[in-house]
């Protein structure tokens, strides 16, 4: 089975550096507070938050799986860019062989930013993608919009 990908752009009025810190780097701390109906708990389970670190997210019944573990494969704090790979949980082993997400936040002309996401995955033989891509895009948009709302309501957070 070949590798496939999809992309998404999310616009935000929040400055890129603040949104990157909140929605990408520190999401394991914010998610259970901001979206407890989806993320029951989350924590860094290996490493110090740098490349090679692993985080685990435990989900409520709102998600089709109970948890995911993701590894940080690449991080450039100056360019507000990172790549994460799914290493366990989710649909690994049942629908997909591998999956990764590349995030890059860029400053927009209005002082906010654009979050560019490219997700790459390799399906297991015989598996077809139906509405999973739409759901994944909706989930990612929800993550960034929840972080955005938190940052707008708390101007000193992640400043």
UniProtKB/TrEMBL annotation:
Biological process annotations from GO: abscisic acid-activated signaling pathway; defense response
Any one cellular-component term (Gene Ontology): nucleus
Recorded GO MF terms: abscisic acid binding; protein phosphatase inhibitor activity; signaling receptor activity
Domain Bet v I/Major latex protein: 3-154
Gene3D superfamilies: 3.30.530.20
Keyword Membrane (UniProt): no
Domain of life: Eukaryota
This protein's UniProt keywords: Pathogenesis-related protein, Plant defense
Family in the record: Belongs to the BetVI family.
PANTHER family in the cross-refs: OS03G0300400 PROTEIN (PTHR31213:SF201), OS08G0374000 PROTEIN-RELATED (PTHR31213)
Protein name, entry field: Pathogenesis-related protein 1
């Amino acid at each position: 089975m070949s590798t496939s990908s999809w992309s998404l752009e999310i616009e935000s009025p929040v400055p890129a550096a603040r949104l990157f810190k909140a929605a990408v780097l520190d999401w394991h701390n914010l998610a259970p507070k901001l979206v407890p109906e989806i993320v029951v708990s989350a924590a860094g389970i290996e490493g110090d938050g740098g490349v090679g670190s692993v985080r685990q997210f435990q989900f409520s019944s709102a998600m089709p799986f109970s948890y995911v573990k993701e590894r940080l494969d690449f991080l450039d704090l100056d360019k507000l860019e990172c790549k994460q790979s799914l290493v366990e949980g989710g649909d690994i082993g049942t629908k997909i062989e591998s999956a990764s997400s590349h995030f890059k936040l860029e400053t927009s002309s209005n002082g906010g930013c654009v979050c560019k996401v490219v997700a790459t995955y390799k399906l297991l033989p015989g598996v077809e993608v139906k509405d999973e891509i739409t759901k994944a895009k909706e989930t990612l948009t929800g993550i960034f919009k929840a972080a955005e709302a938190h940052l707008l309501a708390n101007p000193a957070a992640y400043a």
